[in-house]
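Hi all, posting the design record for the shared folder.

TITLE: backbone redesign
STEP: 1 of 1
STRUCTURE INPUT:
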């Protein structure tokens, strides 16, 4: 198992138990680029230098805070480690909220939460079940990676995977105010017939979310381009989107979309012919050629 990203206590009033957090995401991109000189094709090297002494070793580099223009105080790693803040080792739950109360834009990164050991498993299981049955999320704070994070802890619904999930969250001041982006949107009256067709279109395309269906097609196209360049093969070019000055009638577009979806659904449900069921391939007869008139 991977090393935990954070270990500590979850504390709810007088109840506390040890947990470990593991990052729940990983980069799957296989394409890695290096910086090269366009003229020579050689790798670009990045060196840490200062104006007076030239190249500086990593062990000689410290953090500095500019408290006045051109003047710094230095901060040693040990001094940061010695900062006393409870959330470095304890996630104190300060509030419980409903599952649907947290807007998606507040969520940042997911983590798997497991009990620290078998001794902690009982309290872990009780709190998980309580969160599950009450449909609540626990909120608290954890300090790591140089800052204190707001964290949401949820139980999940799959009892075959009896862990919990934690999500680092953005603070409200980190989110831009939507008003400056949305206030100039033209206000229009929604036509009931158009709305009815739009709802029907959504209904027809609604299905259970399957994350396995979604793949990074950009990564695939990038890999194909690289392989083509390696083999000195032609590189497929993206076709420009057709430009059209034609104004699309929304009602017509909605109606055709619903009708097109009906046609697709009809083809999927169409019964196989007797020939197809028997595996017989039907070949269309060739058109008879009219005799040519003699001169």
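Okay, here is what came back for every position:
SEQUENCE:
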């Amino acid at each position: 198992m991977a090393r935990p990203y954070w270990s500590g206590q979850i504390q709810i009033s007088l109840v506390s138990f040890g947990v470990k957090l593991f990052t729940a995401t990983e980069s799957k991109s296989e394409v890695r680029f290096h910086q090269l000189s366009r003229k020579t094709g050689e790798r670009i090297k990045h060196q840490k230098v200062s104006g007076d002494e030239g190249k500086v070793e990593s062990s000689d580099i410290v953090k500095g805070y500019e408290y006045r223009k051109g003047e710094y105080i230095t901060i040693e790693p040990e001094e940061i480690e010695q900062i006393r803040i409870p959330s470095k080792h304890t996630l104190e739950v300060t509030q419980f909220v409903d599952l649907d109360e947290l807007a998606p834009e507040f969520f940042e990164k997911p983590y798997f939460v497991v009990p620290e050991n078998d001794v902690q498993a009982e309290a872990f299981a009780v709190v998980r079940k309580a969160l599950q049955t009450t449909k609540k999320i626990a909120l608290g704070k954890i300090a790591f990676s140089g800052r204190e994070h707001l964290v949401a802890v949820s139980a999940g619904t799959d009892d075959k995977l009896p862990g919990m999930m934690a999500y680092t969250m953005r603070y409200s001041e980190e989110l831009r105010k939507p008003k400056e982006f949305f206030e100039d949107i033209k206000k229009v009256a929604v036509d009931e017939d158009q709305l009815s067709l739009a709802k029907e279109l959504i209904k027809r395309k609604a299905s259970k979310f399957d994350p396995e269906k979604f793949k990074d097609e950009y990564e695939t196209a990038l890999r194909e381009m690289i392989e083509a360049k390696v083999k000195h093969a032609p590189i497929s070019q993206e076709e420009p989107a057709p430009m059209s000055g034609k104004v699309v009638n929304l009602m017509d577009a909605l109606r055709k979309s619903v009708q097109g979806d009906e046609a697709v659904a009809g083809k999927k449900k169409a019964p196989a012919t007797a020939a197809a069921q028997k595996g017989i391939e039907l070949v269309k007869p060739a058109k008879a050629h009219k005799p040519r008139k003699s001169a």
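COMMENT: Residues 37 and 232 are 21 Å apart (CA to CA).
Let me know if anyone wants the other runs.
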